[in-house]
Amino acid sequence: MKTDAMSRLLTPGRLIVRTGLALVVLAAVMLACSMIGSEKVSLKAVFGGPGARATANPDYEIFVRFRLPRIVLACLVGAALACSGVVFQALLRNPLADPYILGISSGAGLGAIIAVISGLSWTLWGRSPIAVFAFAGALGTVWLVWFIGRLTGKFHVTGLLLAGVVVNAFFSAVIMFLTSIAKADQVHATIFWLMGNMAEEDFLVLWIGAGCVVGGIAALFYISPQLNALSFGPEVARSVGVDTARVRVLAFGIAAGITAIAVSLSGLIGFVGLVVPHGVRLVWGPDHRQLLPLSAVVGAIFLVLADTLARIIVAPAQLPVGVVTALVGGPFFLVLLIRYSRKVSWLR
Amino acid sequence: MNRWCWLLLVISCWTVSGFVLSGRGHIPNNGDPAVPHQTIRVVSMAPNLTEILFALGLDEEIVGVTSFSDYPPAAREKDKVGTFWQPNIEAVVATRPTVVITLGFAQQKNLAERLARIGYKSLTVNIETTNDLFEAIVRIGAATGKQHEADEVVNGIRTKLEKLSALIEATEKVRVLWVVQREPLRVAGRDTFMNEMIEMAGGENAMGPTVYKYPPVGAEQVIACRPDVIIEPAMGQEDLSAQQSSVFQHWSRFRNVPAVANGRVYVIPGETVSRLGPRLYEGTETIARCLRPHLFEN
C-alpha cells in the first residue's frame, strides 16, 4: 500500500522536527506578544519580583497577573478550537465544518445568557456562572444533536449536519428572544461574550484547562490514523479494519469536550476552528497524524497574535478577539487558498 | 487500551497537582489597609463617576478615567483606562490606584472582582435613580476622605432643585415625550431617571408604564399619548445641529400631535440630561425651560 510518495510525506522524524519547530515559533510569538500592550512593561522590572506591598511593582503585576495568563489562555483556546475543527472536518467530511457547526456555539450562548439574566453570582473553582452554564449548554447541545442524528440513521452525516443546523437556528432564536426581553446592561454583557471575550484567568483554571486540552489533543492524536481512514469514507475505513462507530464516538466526544472547555473559557471565538485546519492542510498536507499537532500549535499562534491585536488596536480600550480573528483570518486564508490550493486534491 | 489508561492517569495527576499547587502558592490577600496611603489615587470607570469625583474636588487625586469622560474639560487630560464597556485592566493597574470606582453593571462588577483578586480596592455604586445618585456621592466622598464636600454637593443640588420646584409649583403638568432614539423610535419609559427629571421639571411622562425601560414605540402610540412637548437629547455638537435642522421635517408626519402642532419639539444638548451626575440640576433646568419657557424669560 505504502508508496514512495507517502513515505516521503511523513516520517516520525519529520513530524517531530516540524512540531518542534512550530513549538519554538509559538514560544517566540508568546514572548514577543507578552512584551506588547497598552502599558509598557520592562522584563528587568518583572524579574524584580512582586516587591513590598507599599511600593508594589506594577510591571511585575501587569506581566504576571494579567498579560501572561491571558496569553496562555489564548494558546489553549486556539489549540483546542483548531484541533476540534480538524476533527469535525474529518468526521463530517465537509470542508465547511468547524467546531461550532453542530450547535455548540448557540448552546453555549444560550447557557451564557441564561446565566446573565438569572443574575447568579456564585463561583465554581473560580469559574463564573456564565462559564459553567456555557459549558453545560455546549455539551448538552452536542448530545442533543448527536441523539437526533442517531435517530435519522446510523451515523448519517447529512442527518447530523441538518440536526446541527436546525438546533443552532432554534437556539439562536431563543437567544434573540431572551436578549430582547433582557435589561440593557445584561444584553451588553452577553454581546461581548458572544463576540469572544478574553480576560486573565486564575492559575488553577488555566492549569486544569491546559491539562484537559492537551490531554484531549493527545487522545485525538492517538486516533489520527483512524481519522485518516475515515476521511476516505466509512466503507473504505471499515475495509482497512477501522472500528468506525467507536472512532466516531471517541473523536466526536473529545472534540466536543475541548470545544466546550474553550468556549467556557473565552466565549465564542469564530474562524479559528475553520481557517487554521485548512491553512495547515493546504501548506503541509492532509495527514491527520501531522495535521492535528501542527493545527494545535498554529491555532495557538494565531489566537495569541489575534488577541494581542485585540488588546492594542483601539488601546486603551479593547476589541473582542472574535472580531480580530475574522478580520485577520479571512484575507490571510484567501491568500493561502490561492497560493497552495494545487497541493490538495479535493480543491481541484 | 493501555495508552488510554496512561493518558487518563496523567490528566488526573496534573489536575490534582494543580489543586495542590494553587492551594500552596496562594499569595495572602491584602485587602487590609495595613499600610496607610498618604495619597489617594482614584480611577473612575464611567463618565458620570468622573464628574462626581471632580465635583468633590479630587482634581489632583484622579489618576485615570474612561475614554468618554469629557466633563469637566480637565477630565480629557487624565490617563485613559479603556471604555465603560471594555475596561482595560492593565491600564487601570498601571495607574497604581488606591481605589477604583465602578458602576454596578455586569461588565464593571466583573472588573471590580478581577481587581479584588489581586488586592486592589474598588467601590461599586449603583446610579439608576436620583436617590441613588445622592447616596453614591456620599459613599464616594466617604471612600476618598471628602465627606464634607460630598454633603455640600448633595445639599447644593437639593437646594437648587427645591427652588426650581417652588418656581413651577401649582401649574398644570406638561406631557412630555422623551425621545432616546429616532430610528427606530425609542422613548424613555417611567422606570428611568429621565422620568424623574421630567417630573422634577414640572412635567409628566406621556408614555405610560411599560415593560421596557426604553420602549420601542410605533407611530400609533406617539399619536395616542398626545405629548405637549417632545424632547430629543443629542450628544455632541454635530449631532445637535444636525438634529435641530431636521427636527420639524422629521416630526411633520405627526401634525396632529399637540407638541408638533404648536412647534414644541426641542433638541437639547444631551450631556447633562443623559448622564446622571452632579449636573442633575442643570439638566433638570434645561428641561424645565423647554416645558415652561415663559417662567425663565427674565
Shape of chain B: globular
Number of strands of chain B: 9
Radius of gyration of chain A: 21 Å
Overall mean pLDDT of chain B stands at 85
Residue share in β-strands of chain A: under 5%
Pair with the biggest interface = A-B, 43 and 40 residues
Mean pLDDT of chain A: 84
Uncertain stretches of chain B = 28-36
Q: What is the element string of chain A, with H for helices and E for strands?
A: HHHHHHHHHHHHHHH
In terms of per-residue confidence, which ranges of chain A show pLDDT below 50 for 5 or more consecutive residues? none
Largest sheet of chain A: none
The backbone outline of chain A, from C-alpha atoms, is globular
Main sheet attributes: strand count, strand direction, barrel closure of chain B: 5 strands, mixed
CATH class of chain A: Mainly Alpha
Range of strand content of chain B: 5-15%
TL;DR of this structure?
The complex is a heterodimer of chains A (348) and B (298). By secondary structure, chain A is an all-alpha fold.
